[in-house]
Write a structure and sequence with these properties.
The complex is a heterodimer of chains A (286) and B (183). Chain A is of the alpha/beta class and 286 residues long. Helix content of chain A is 42%, strand content 19%. The longest helix of chain A has 18 residues. The mean pLDDT of chain A is 95. The chains are: A alpha/beta (286), B alpha+beta (183).
Chain lengths: 286, 183
Amino acid sequence: MLAIVGTVPDLRFPLVEGQAKLRGNVIQVDGHSAPVNRGTPALIAAAVKTLEVIDRPAPYVYLAGDIGLGEGSRGLYDHLVRHLPQTDWGVLTFHYLQPDVDWHNRVLLAIGEMQRRCLLIADAGYMYAAKMSGMAEAYDLFTPDAGELAFLADDQAPHPFYTRGFILHEEQKVPDLIARAYRYKNAARLLLVKGKVDYVAGAQGVLAAIDQPAEEALEPIGGTGDTLTGIVSALAAGGMELKWAATSAARANRIAGCLATPTPMTQVSDIIACIPRALAQVLEMA
Amino acid sequence: MLKFFKKKAEVPAATEQGVETGILVFENTSEVIRAENTLKAAGWSIRVKGPPPEIRTGCDLVIEFPLIEELAVLRALENVGLHPLQTVPVTGPLLQPVDLFQVKDFGRFLMVRAANMKLTVDRQTGRIVNISGGGCPDIPYLAQEMVGRPLADAPEPRQIGHTLCGYALQLAYEEVRRRCLPS
């Protein structure tokens, strides 16, 4: 089963855990609701849609309200340290959390005490913390965009804000950056790099490149990376081998984006609505 | 304001003058931004940098300042209710924030990227239509507060953001304003 950890941009949202429901453009967990605009609620909504298509249970989620001051994230980290050892998730996906190396390492120790080794997926702030901690290799999948890949490839940058210019200039050379990220041990077992071309890669290099369908207007739309992470997490939780889950998710996310006939002002909820149709196409092709 | 990003500092910063420097460490990035504005307004030659490895926690920004002026700097900050967590002498090179903007023209829409953050505006209506990128928890919050609002009236990331991603979004926001709003 899939478990997702992240935050909601609302200070009044308490620390909750439970199985997520999707009602229109709102996710509901343990009696609390959050709109699906972007961020972790968008990831959860994409995962719910995907799991419905493959007939699996909705994801279990750990959420807290955080608007960047970090209190919600720290409460969540503490909760995970105390409760993860008693759990048995198949896939554990970490998302928008305040990057904090010390807490990250404590959570990783708690994961080591779980009943079995689960697949670990990290995106957004938690991926930043995983890289900065030097423990990137403990993860099965990172889902960076091209800019975040440059950050992974920079052995000295603790945050994308500090990626050195000579590496950032190489952003168009994604395969080179992938190689550099692995050389410095700053990558997970697999990378799903989202961008104009989506790449699935491992330590041996690029395993797949997905460039169709192409829709330029998707780039400005906030949340399209979140939906990709949600889809790949759900497919992996459904038993699909991780490399194929990443490739299929990239295709489905691109198709869903095109089905929404996007402009730069399209919101991600319009794309999430198209995920079931997109996935059906991809799974039919497989 | 935030001119370090454009590398246009008129006054040579402390390190360039051969003066010994220190760093001010704060609880979060929003305090750093307030301190930066306060000290620059008072005429100090300071710079916003990345912290040295030994005091990094994960999402940090510090202020580099002339060490010899520590007492006066701390007094100026105290006057506005700012209390740095630590003051540390600089013993090695500090990380520089990224200094690249990428601009993409979609015709009616203009997208500006600073570091890992993208902000897109509708030139016809003057409204912010999307915010993308970033990984810190204030980004979904900033997007919620800014998207759909006119560029001229939207809250600035430096007012309501708290992290490095929020700081990067402020830079994109300023660049979009510079390109789309009359000065």
